[in-house]
Design brief:
Elements: E1 2-4, E2 19-24, E3 31-33, E4 35-45, E5 50-59, E6 68-70, E7 76-80, E8 86-88, E9 95-97, E10 103-108, E11 115-117, E12 119-129, E13 134-145, H1 149-182, H2 192-205
């Protein structure tokens, strides 16, 4: 990006009556880019005495407002199908407008339908205007693994076995409690040794 500059060229006089333009770095009508550029004229006389004229051409942007981006997509979260290494992602592409009326898509890192592997991938769109002002749209495609179907089967099996074991333990405890309730209590009027004999006899009959 550049523009042309014009000026009235300098001249020189000398007591000797003779001067010569030895060199000049630029001439009127030359192109100048953004920033400061030194312009130098070198004059000399017959005795090789020199004199220099130096000035600067400063070029600035007339438009410093970057383009305005519309419809920059939000981050996407995608679950990768089991057994696959990548998946495709789709989005509505962003656009840009500018006060100058001119915008250009300078670059984009991906396009809708591209494959994306596991992890986070940055997607970037770069827009510019006629004055080289830039604006960027950036979002992420985040791909993660889906749960293994075999893992679900294992979890379901473990849950079923655990449930069966718990019910079996509850049934056994309940049955044992019923059997204990059927045991005869100590009979009144009998000595401890006699009660032991009766309990043993009861157990034998059972």
């Amino acid at each position: 990006m550049s523009t042309t500059a014009f000026w009235d060229e300098p001249s020189a006089t000398d007591t000797s009556g003779t001067t010569k333009l030895q060199s000049r770095s630029h001439v009127p009508g030359d192109p100048f880019g953004l920033g400061n550029t030194s312009v130098t004229y070198l004059f000399s006389d017959a005795s090789d005495n020199n004199a220099t004229c130096q000035f600067y051409i400063t070029v600035m942007k007339s438009n410093t407002t970057p383009p305005v981006i519309s419809n920059c997509p939000a981050d996407q979260y995608i679950e990768l199908d089991f057994g696959k290494m990548s998946t495709t992602a789709f989005w509505d592409e962003p656009s840009a407008t500018d006060t100058s009326g001119t915008t250009k898509l300078q670059s984009r890192s991906h396009v809708p339908g591209d494959p994306f592997g596991l992890g986070n991938t940055s997607v970037t769109y770069l827009f510019s205007d006629a004055s080289d002002n830039n604006a960027t749209c950036q979002f992420y495609i985040l791909v993660k693994k889906s749960a293994s179907p075999y893992k679900s089967i294992v979890i379901s099996t473990v849950t079923l076995v655990t449930t069966i074991v718990i019910f079996a333990l509850l049934w056994w405890c309940k049955k044992r409690a019923v059997r204990q309730e059927k045991q005869p209590s100590a009979l009144p009027g009998l000595e401890l040794s006699q009660q032991g004999v009766i309990l043993q006899a009861y157990n034998i009959k059972k």
